[in-house]
């Protein structure tokens, strides 16, 4: 019997065992180092400048005090007007018996409270102006004068 090297069926023997593919090793990326710089020359001698006796243009404390006074002014006036209106709305929603009750000669309480809202709004405006005159305006004037003084000093140099 003779050996036929070409078999009649297309079967190929399995390939020899090979390890799984691994890419070649690459070290982790490191950015290039900056080029070395020449040594710095020493800084030229600077003349010492005169220190100021006070902070320029109103200190931060002055501006904080002004902001706080203005904030107090806004809150007072807003809470006066809106507080009364909110009270009126709550009474209308949750106490209809009180609002429909009469005060004198057939005048309902709700109508009286609605009419009082206009003077309360005027009161809030008057309170706003009073606190502006008493607390906010003097602080703003002082800061404005200091800013003008600083501007004159800066222009004289």
What does this structure look like?
The protein starts with 59 loop residues before the first helix and ends with a helix. Helices cover 55% and strands 0% of the residues. The chain is flat. The protein has 157 residues and is an all-alpha fold. The model has no long low-confidence stretch (mean pLDDT 79). It is built from 3 helices and no strands.
Task: Give the tags.
flat; 157 residues; mainly alpha
Q: Outline, from the CA principal axes?
A: flat
Helix content: 55-70%
Measured on Cα atoms, how large is the radius of gyration?
43 Å
The average pLDDT score comes to 79
Task: Detail the topology: elements first, then pairings.
Layout (H helix, E strand, L loop, with lengths): L59 H35 L1 H5 L8 H47 L2
Helix pairs in contact: 1-3
Outline of this structure?
Helix content is 55%, strand content 0%. The chain is an all-alpha fold.
């Amino acid at each position: 019997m003779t050996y036929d090297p070409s078999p009649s069926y297309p079967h190929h023997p399995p390939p020899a065992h090979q390890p799984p593919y691994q890419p070649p090793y690459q070290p982790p990326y490191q950015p290039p180092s900056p080029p070395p710089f020449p040594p710095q020359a020493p800084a030229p001698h600077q003349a010492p400048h005169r220190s100021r006796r006070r902070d320029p243009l109103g200190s931060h404390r002055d501006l904080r005090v002004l902001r706080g006074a203005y904030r107090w002014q806004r809150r007072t006036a807003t809470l006066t007007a809106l507080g009364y209106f909110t009270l009126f709305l709550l009474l209308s929603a949750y106490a209809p018996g009180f609002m429909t009750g009469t005060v004198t000669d057939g005048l309902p309480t709700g109508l009286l409270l609605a009419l009082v809202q206009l003077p309360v709004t005027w009161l809030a405006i008057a309170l706003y102006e009073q606190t502006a005159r008493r607390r906010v305006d003097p602080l703003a004037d002082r800061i404005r004068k200091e800013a003008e003084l600083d501007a004159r000093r800066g222009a004289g140099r």
